[in-house]
Amino acid sequence: MNHSMELLAPGGDVDSIKAAIIAGADAIYCGLDKFNARNRAANISFDNLQGILRLAHNNNCEVFLTLNTLIIENEIPALFTLLNKLVNTSIDGVIVQDLGMFYLLSKYFKSLKIHASTQVTAHNEGHIQFFSKLNATRVNLSRELNLHEIKTLSSTAHKNKVLTEVFVHGSYCISFSGLCYISSVQSGNSGNRGRCSQPCRDEYVTTPEGNNFPLNLKDNSAYLNLPELYNAKVDSIKIEGRIKKFHYVYTIVDAYKKQIQSIYNKTNLDSDNSILYKVFNRDFSNSFLKGDIDKNMFIDNPRDHSAIHLAEISGGVSDENLEIAKKEIYDERSEIISNVRTKIDGLSSEKVPLLITISGQSDTQLKVLINTPDNSFVLYSETKLTKTQTSSLDYDSLLKRLKAINNTEYFIEQLELEHLENNVFIPFKELTSLKNRILFILNGSKENIEPIEVPVLKKHTNKITKPSLSILISSEKDLNLCNNTTADVYFQLPNCFTNKVAELVDLFIKNEKLIPWFPSILIGEDYRAAVQFINHVKPKRIVTNNTGIAYKAYEKGIEWIAGPFLNIVNSYSLQSLKENFSCAGAFISNEINKQQIRSIKKPENFKLFYSIYHPIMLMTSRQCFFHQVTGCKKTIIDGICISQCEKRSSITNLKNGTLFIEKSKGNLHSIYNDANFLNTDIVSQIPNTFSSFFIDLRNIQTKTKSTLDKSQIISLFKNHIAGHENAAHEIEHCFHPTTKVQFNKGI
């Protein structure tokens, strides 16, 4: 059966939004100056938004607002102020990452459609079910998925009445979105707050394989794969680029629109993608989409590839050819900019001006005449005007009562009172009623929604006199710790579950004290194998960093703890997890500082956890880092790579020091900070808050070293948690180097 596939375009500023509209975008995503994950974009004001909504809707284009960052507690009032305005606009949807915002939207702002951002890292069937329960109407799937995986998730989504969105063009992140902390650790600019400083594009000391930009991927382009995405029943294809200029947006949207029209018309698609090279690019790859994750996805240059590409197809990249190509690209780009500028200058995104004429005499009804450029209507007060010597109607008092109109797609350009008798009065509630009736008509007969106050959450201060210690291991060699400590022992499960279910089930049945610790990424068969593991082991409790597994635990009545990579930073996230998914407790994110943690109010009978010692994972990728660093005999990643490869290496950033690459058997590639996180202060600085403090004792190689064995480390941390006088000093003396930069800075 035929279906439509939305073309979703970026709108970093007003000109880019206009460019997307004239190029034929079906929808645009844009951000305001707060709460969106592209702080480096120009973004738009709320006043801009109203005019943009009018312009877009007049051109059959929807507008989605990006509210896709983590929200800390003291920002909730400002968020409510914004949401109270948004519900009275014609916005078509809001894009969300923070679990607390999902909760607030679905509970208090039900008229707003919720889209799950790419930052939620949705990549398995459980994720779809999880976000469906949070009333998401659309889920943006992880960028790393292949066509088969996308088709499967689209089918699951449609069964759950959820739409799917897939990224098809623009900059790739080498890390799974929402799981990248490198910018946060190195510069205090959290990617989960829209402040990523893009250290993956930085220059590094030349690697043994001869590369200076070992984390730099080519851009994504599915230009030649749109029929497969269409057949996979994808609902929306998204172009990245809110930092890009209007001529870029127009060029890419126009090209993709023509491809989609060819699919609808069942005509031949364009097999020539040269138009895409006319604007900024880092060359192109569709390897994630094809499922061929290979070495050719990398490019050792983060800058514009357009001239190099033109020189390559024009006889080779000689100095002479490159100069000619640069001139040609400059001329072509100048012509594109000029042509698009002419087109967008013909569009107005201004709000509609209103002329309001107010007239009336004592003992008559107040008459309000509203004139727009295209229409006019008259309203009358329900009561009559009366004479008064005080509080009479004048320009200032009437403008004050009607100013809410300026928060719509209209603005009061002129207010005329020439035919209003002096010293007359009407009750203010009557003026409020007139204002609401005006808004109702201007808003297409939609009732104005009254503001909602920020819900007050009770702070449950039940005293925790003896917080416990929990530890994480990943090697069977450390199983003896289960018998040598009273601490809870978590065992990290792998990303690659396929063909390991029986072995892992046997491990947990033989070691009943082990608590399963699920990783953030479980794709396709590995996710389904992880569910089989749960069915066989029937654990009493789990910790999960994957909301898909969280949904299964909720469904099966298993006690579950939200892991540290679910990015919990506010009270409403905790409330959401408890109310919607019967969550028993959660780790608070290590990105936030002391004051931000203190502001969080935990629900009743809910446990809070905090990691006080761990290697800092900076990113996790489906790509292989060793291709660019030390080299590999294989040019493409296969199933054996994930299940069997075990390597370590490092790269050195010219600005920020050394990063450690870790690839263990059964797991994806990860990069770790040079120094481990250590925060002994939190035990005394924020007392009676955490039920358990956590230490990560996996064998992750970083610069941080300790002379103690793991049993001694556990004893030392237990002493510190118990309040022993010199334990903190001993811990800090035993581990070097360490950092707690995230706790000091916050987000």
Describe this structure in words.
- By secondary structure, the chain is of the alpha/beta class.
- It has three domains: 294 residues, Aldolase class I (TIM Barrel, Alpha-Beta Barrel); 91 residues, no CATH class; 216 residues, Alpha-Beta Barrel (TIM Barrel), CATH 3.20.20.70.
- 33% of the residues lie in helices and 21% in strands.
- It contains 26 helices and 32 strands.
- The longest helix has 26 residues.
- The radius of gyration is 29 Å and the shape is globular.
- The two termini are 47 Å apart.
Primary descriptors:
747 residues; alpha/beta; TIM Barrel; 3 domains; eight-stranded parallel beta barrel; eight-stranded parallel barrel; 33% helix; globular
Distance between the termini: 47 Å
> CATH topology of the largest domain, what is it called?
TIM Barrel
Please identify which CATH superfamily of the largest domain we are dealing with.
Aldolase class I
**CATH class membership of the largest domain:** Alpha Beta
CATH-defined architecture of the largest domain: Alpha-Beta Barrel
Which class of secondary structure composition applies to the elements?
Answer: alpha/beta
Sketch the major β-sheet: 8 strands, parallel, barrel
Rg of Cα set: 29 Å
Mean pLDDT: 95
Task: Give helix % range.
Answer: 25-40%
